[in-house]
Write a structure and sequence with these properties.
Blueprint: E1 11-17, E2 26-33, H1 38-43, H2 54-67, E3 70-76, H3 78-86, H4 91-106, E4 110-114, H5 120-131, E5 139-143, H6 151-175, H7 186-197, H8 211-229
Helix pairs in contact: 2-6, 4-5, 7-8
């Protein structure tokens, strides 16, 4: 990306939903706004998606979309995450690629990121370099919990969360109740455990490279071995 060909405009925020689940995709969203619309975004009551009920997130979606000048989404399926991790690509790297791709697409003059790296500044530097925005003198702010500090990141967080929740709802219609997809959800664990116990192949919506999934498989295999030895 050449800085000579870029005309940076607006303020953008990027965040993800679904980094840690054992079922479903990771959704990364970037939202671009005109600076003059930030007060309107604030007036909507935009907050970190985790602080809002599902109903409230749904209510905010359309107003946020109407205010935004551009929205960019990257939906990374569980199967793709497994394939990349199988080739030695870390989850952080997967996230960096998605963030950088969105940053390059939006081309904001200011960019706010919810950092995935333990070193927030390093994450921002990486996104800036890969997207070409650093060379174009884009102001990049990369912080942990940015979704609770900056409305533009909160907006991205809300859209990403609603998008992922919609996908999970579709999965439950197709495969049966998969719960929220997170390892601490008993319904999600029960869904995976039932498949393993019945000897069924895990569908592509399950992140087979996840330790929580491997643990369920090991537990069921150990239990079966015990039964066979009785």
């Amino acid at each position: 990306m050449s800085s000579k060909s870029i005309s940076l405009e607006g303020i953008a925020g990027i965040d993800e939903a679904g980094r840690g689940p054992m079922i479903g995709p990771m959704v990364v969203c970037g939202v671009l706004f005109n600076p003059g619309d930030l007060a309107k975004l604030r007036d909507l009551g935009t907050k970190d998606s985790k602080m809002l009920s599902a109903k409230r997130r749904e209510m905010l979606i359309e107003p946020i979309k109407k205010l935004a000048t551009k929205i960019a989404l990257r939906v990374i399926p569980a199967s793709e995450i497994d394939q990349l991790r199988g080739r030695g690509v870390t989850l952080n790297e997967i996230e960096v690629r998605a963030f950088a791709s969105i940053a390059e697409e939006l081309q904001p003059s200011e960019l706010y990121l919810d950092a995935a790296d333990v070193v927030a500044e390093r994450f921002g530097k990486e996104i800036g370099e890969r997207s070409g925005l650093s060379r174009a003198s884009c102001k990049i702010v990369s912080e942990h919990k940015a979704d609770s500090k900056y409305e533009v990141v909160s907006a991205a967080s809300i859209i990403a969360k609603v998008e992922r929740d919609g996908i999970i709802t579709q999965f439950s219609s197709e495969y049966g109740n998969v719960g929220s997809g997170y390892p601490n959800d008993p319904e999600t664990v029960a869904f995976v455990r039932k498949l393993v116990k019945n000897g069924e192949e895990l569908p592509d919506i399950v992140r087979k490279s996840w330790d929580s999934v491997k643990r369920i498989i090991e537990e069921e295999e150990s239990f079966q071995t015990t039964l066979d030895g009785i």
